[in-house]
Design goal:
- The complex is a heterodimer of chains A (249) and B (162).
- Chain A is an all-alpha fold and 249 residues long.
- Chain A has one domain (3-243): Ferritin (Up-down Bundle), CATH 1.20.1260.
- Chain A has 10 helices and no strands.
- In chain A, helix 1 (3-23) packs antiparallel against helix 2, helix 3 packs across helix 10 (230-243) and helix 5 (89-110) packs across helix 7 (148-166).
- Chain A is globular.
- Chain B has 162 residues and is α/β, with parallel strands linked by helices.
- Chain B folds into 2 domains: 5-85, GMP Synthetase, Chain A, domain 3, CATH 3.30.300.130; 100-159, no CATH class.
- In chain B, 22% of the residues lie in helices and 26% in strands.
- In chain B, a hairpin with a 7-residue loop joins strand 7 (132-136) and strand 8 (144-149).
- The model of chain B has no long low-confidence stretch (mean pLDDT 91).
- The chains are: A mainly alpha (249), B alpha/beta (162).
- The A-B interface holds A 33, 36-37, 39-41, 43-48, 50-51, 120-121, 123-125, 127-128, 130-131, 134-135 and B 50-54, 81-82, 84-86, 114, 116, 119, 135-140, 142, 146, 160, 162.
């Protein structure tokens, strides 16, 4: 695939899928503020996905709604981390923390992308992502220094989630061209920045970051290989759209 | 006499934020450019406060309807991120409009980066104390945060700095 399309699909699909997962907290949050926070982040992420699908459309891909709602699992390029069910709040919070730290650093780097339309979107998105990271840090610090049960649950969630989080940085065949053309600094560079960024926050808690080099990243998502959880999500997301794909909303 | 850009901006003072009727889109900073074309048509460039703002289509429609009602033959609108919105784009009159609606105003960033510390200690729109704390950066809409005033012992909303 053309390196620009390859990069944009990965970015856009991550936003769309995690946005939908976050929206599942609507009405279920452990406290009202968290219900609203996850719903707001969902809305932000769907907005970001729309901006990115619009860039794809300008490059000749189908309309954003068509791309979002008519593809099936093998055509999605999101990392597997984003598609996992919301589970308990500890998992959703840790996923949000690990993903959005990478996301903020990613969009800060993309603000200097050689592809100007993407740089424009990134300059907008990175400011909004600061609020996502602020939110994640607040709760990770709060629960990561709270009761024994809270710390144990957060630690277990961290250990479960980290191998999936390492899958954020899975590369494709286009990686070397993406870096050499100045589209993006690349996943390896991003992962280094991310490790420093999450370590700084975790150091202020009772949580321990395991040695990441001893973990096996869960990959495949960037190449269309997904868990059994993605297709049911896609079916639910597209349920209304598919009733009448030509309807004007 | 052809319509001037100043006249257009004046007419657009009547177009308010769909959720905050005390602030115009011009004072909110969402309308970035107004251009009168050679044929008398008008082009308006808008930018969203937040990328996922669901109100953009309404804003666009309100701008078009208002200008047509003033006899502009052809109105085109564009949503662009070329000149991305920051809370510093809210004018003084706009900040007054936010206060009238009971919202705390965003602190000025003056081109600097958003330091998360400034999110604490927002000024309470009721009693003006800064004896307040940030409860959650996410509120009823994407552009609002929720704070708590220790003097009033009440929650209040703030238009978020970004």
């Amino acid at each position: 695939m053309n390196p620009t399309l390859d990069l944009l699909y990965r970015l856009a699909d991550d936003q769309l899928i995690l946005g939908h997962r976050n929206s599942e907290w609507n009405g279920l949050g452990p406290i009202l503020e968290e219900d609203i926070a996850f719903s707001s982040m969902a809305q932000d992420k769907l907005g970001h996905s729309l901006q990115l699908y619009t860039l794809l459309h300008e490059l000749g891909e189908a309309e954003p709604d068509t791309v979002a709602f008519t593809r099936n699992t093998p055509q999605f390029h999101c990392c597997q981390l984003t598609e996992l069910p919301i589970g308990e709040y500890d998992f959703s919070l840790v996923r949000h923390f690990l993903f959005d730290h990478a996301e903020l650093l990613r969009f800060e780097a993309l603000a200097d992308s050689s592809y100007e339309p993407l740089a424009l979107v990134a300059r907008k998105v990175k400011g909004e992502l600061k609020y996502h990271v602020l939110h994640a840090n607040t709760w990770v610090k709060r629960l990561g220094t709270a009761t024994e049960e809270a710390i144990e649950r957060m630690q277990a969630a961290l250990e479960f989630t980290l191998p999936y989080a390492l899958g954020i940085f899975e590369t494709t065949d286009a990686e070397s061209e993406i870096i050499s053309s100045g589209l993006f600094v690349g996943e390896e560079q991003l992962q280094r920045r991310w490790e420093a960024s999450i370590s700084k926050v975790l150091a202020q808690t009772a949580l321990t970051l395991p040695d990441l080099r001893l973990l096996t990243p869960v990959t495949g998502g960037r190449h269309g290989q997904h868990t059994e959880h993605l297709q049911p999500l896609l079916d639910e997301m597209a349920e209304v759209f598919r009733l009448d794909p030509t309807a004007d909303w | 006499m052809p319509t001037t850009e100043a006249q257009i901006l004046d007419w657009l003072q009547a177009v308010t934020d769909p959720e905050i009727p005390t602030i115009s889109l011009v004072d909110l900073g969402v309308i970035r450019e107004v251009r009168v074309e050679d044929d008398g048509g008008v082009h308006v460039r808008l930018t969203p406060t937040f990328a996922g703002c669901p109100a953009m289509d309404y804003m666009r429609r309100d701008v078009e309807t208002t200008l047509r009602a003033h006899g502009i033959p052809r109105v085109t609108t564009e949503i662009s991120l070329r000149d991305p919105w920051t809370s510093d784009m809210v004018t003084e009159r706009g900040r007054e409009g936010l206060r009238q609606h009971g919202l705390a105003t965003p602190p000025k960033l003056n081109g600097g980066l958003l330091e998360l510390d400034i999110l604490e200690y927002a000024e309470c729109p009721r009693c003006h104390t800064t004896n307040t704390e940030l409860r959650t950066p996410f509120g009823a809409t994407l552009c609002r945060a929720v704070h708590y005033c220790h003097d009033c012992r009440q929650l209040f909303e703030q238009f978020k700095p970004i």
